[in-house]
């Protein structure tokens, strides 16, 4: 397996990872009815659009095998609230359970760091849903909580944590 930039043909694989990761990561956190309603085909269209409309300061990476099967992805770019001009944001990162704990997250972050540095970003942040086991990963990687907010998913309210790296140089 290896990491590469996503192409339009990856949309279905990314959508599949996205939906399956939500169903395993958020089971017991987010309502089952919502998780059961997630659709790969619906997500595929969103990802196809995203791949075709990435801004110059955004990137979408995939972890894939030689046959093109997608096992994970990471998308990031300029902080979406545009409050901090030199801050990057992780938009989404998901790995299928079968490759978690094998260093792919760290490798994806290393690639992201190179890209962010090349675009002039100096810091990074990510929003993490309360209860998501990735919170511990981000903390081990040096992210520190800076704020919380309430969000709605499927008609229910949940808490998200914002974690920040003051310098992207803190990343592996």
Characterise this structure.
The structure is a single chain. This protein is α+β, with helices and mostly antiparallel strands. Strand 2 (59-64) and strand 3 form a beta hairpin. It starts with a strand and ends in a 7-residue tail after the last strand. The model has no long low-confidence stretch (mean pLDDT 94). The protein has one domain (2-124): Gcn5-related N-acetyltransferase (GNAT) (Aminopeptidase). It is globular. Strands 1-2-3-4-5-7-6 form a seven-stranded mixed sheet. The longest helix has 15 residues, at 11-25. It has helices at 11-25, 32-37, 40-52, 104-118, 134-140, and strands spanning 2-5, 59-64, 70-78, 87-95, 123-129, 144-153, 156-165. Helix 1 packs across helix 3. InterPro entries: Acyl_CoA_acyltransferase, Bact_Acetyltransf, GNAT_dom. Keywords: Acyltransferase, Transferase. Residues 1-164 form the N-acetyltransferase domain.
Question: Quick summary of this structure?
Answer:
Helices cover 33% and strands 32% of the residues. The protein is of the alpha+beta class and 172 residues long. The protein has a seven-stranded mixed β-sheet.
Spatial order of the strands in the main sheet?
A: 1-2-3-4-5-7-6
- Looking at this structure, what is the CATH superfamily? Gcn5-related N-acetyltransferase (GNAT)
Q: What Rg is obtained from the alpha carbons, in whole angstroms? A: 15 Å
Please identify the structural class as seen in this structure.
alpha+beta
State the order of secondary-structure elements, H for helix, E for strand: EHHHEEEHEHEE
Main β sheet profile: 7 strands, mixed
On the 0-100 scale, what is the average pLDDT? 94
